[in-house]
Amino acid sequence: MKLSFRWYGDSDPVTLEQIRQIPNMYSIVSAVYDVPAGSVWSTESIMRLKSQAQDNGLKFEVVESVPVPEEIKYGGPNAQELTEVYCENIKRLAKAGVKCICYNFMPVFDWLRSELSHRQADGANALAYDEKTVLSMDPLKSELSLPGWDESYTKEELGELMNKYKNVSEDKLWDNLECFLKKIIPVAESNNIKMAIHPDDPPWGIFGLPRIITNEKNLEKFLNLADSPSNGITFCTGSLGALAENNLPRMANRFAKKIPFAHLRNILRTGSRQFEEVAHPTSCGSLDMYGIVKGLVLGGFDGYVRPDHGRMIWGETGRYGYGLYDRALGAAYLNGLFEAVEKDIGDLR
Ligand code: DNO
User: Quick one: average pLDDT of 306-332?
Assistant: First the structure.
């Protein structure tokens, strides 16, 4: 596995100097944030990220995300043109040495949480989700202040956008996704890029909008839409793990070769459609992190891994879910799990 760490660029309070000191760190995971979704990324901005990484002894091989414009997801008149822009970005990133691109196909909202600073027993603060609280908010009244939520929309714009999805059923969303894959996957394949779709977080429809990248059956369906080494999954355990019926060790094992990128973090399910983010180790939450890593390794996983959301600990403040300390602890834990599992398996061979 190649260990990586998300870095939000110059505005990130976590520095590359800090990231490089995390043992076994290989690559940053970043993106160009200076243009809106649907624009071509300048070669200059891409190359700047690469050289910033290199100056700190790191690679820049993973992009998270190249956002998919809403119009592609709801199937608007400019979908085709926007898909061409998307393909151009794939080519530009390949030229800069990027090997894996993470993206998602969630209508309107990316990841959603109801609380940003949920106080835990040990004094840490973490992100939490409670469906009741989320549904009590009316996105059209802009009472929404959630991470992953693009606050640049006005109320009116959001209303218009949600309206565009009025006739987009799950089936229609699948069709639009297939149409998108048919265009981008051949481009990715000829440029040696692995595309890695991120599961929906949480993995169920929300505010009447469909979500489809949610469970084992749908991941299988997704992989069958485009049979190519470039069509893969970002295996995000925190997202998929919110659904108790998702057997993550089994899914990790089954899809291992189709997982170029894994987000490995733990959550604690606290009720129906209710969970909070916890420290990475198995003992801290509902997910079997050892079982997941074992599933991946036994399945032949050879991708990038990043510790995912961290809690805020030791008085740290910063970008919710993306502080340094707890994610670094997560990275150290994942290093240990992978070493142990890989050696165990090696010894048995
Ligand atoms: C949250 C992230 C997501 C992810 C996108 C991928 O922390 O995991 O925002 O980057 O969904 O497109």
Answer: 97
Write down the pLDDT at residue 144. 58
Three-state DSSP at 125 gives strand
Instruction: State mean pLDDT over 240-244.
Output: 98
Q: Which helix (H) or strand (E) is 232 found in, with range?
A: strand 231-236
Return the CATH superfamily for domain 2-348: Divalent-metal-dependent TIM barrel enzymes (3.20.20.150)
Per-residue pLDDT tens for 16-32?
A: 999 999 999 999 999 99
Q: Which of 6, 72, 146, 198 to mutate to test the pocket of ligand 1 (most atoms within 8 A of CB)?
A: 198
CA distance linking residue 146 with residue 179, whole number of Å: 30
Helix ranges restricted to H, the chain: 16-20, 43-55, 70-74, 79-95, 131-135, 155-164, 170-190, 216-225, 237-240, 248-255, 289-298, 325-348
* Substitution site in 8, 65, 70, 180 for ligand 1 pocket (most atoms within 8 Å of beta carbon): 65
Lining residues, ligand 1, CB within 6 Å: 64-65, 102-104, 110-111, 148, 198, 263, 309, 321
Ligand 1, atom 2, residue with closest C-alpha: 111
Domain parsing of the chain, residue ranges: 2-348
Q: What is the pTM of this model?
A: 0.97
* Model confidence pLDDT, tens digit, residues 216-240: 999 999 999 999 999 999 999 999 9
Residue-level pLDDT at 270 = 97
Atom of ligand 1 nearest to the CA of 67: 12
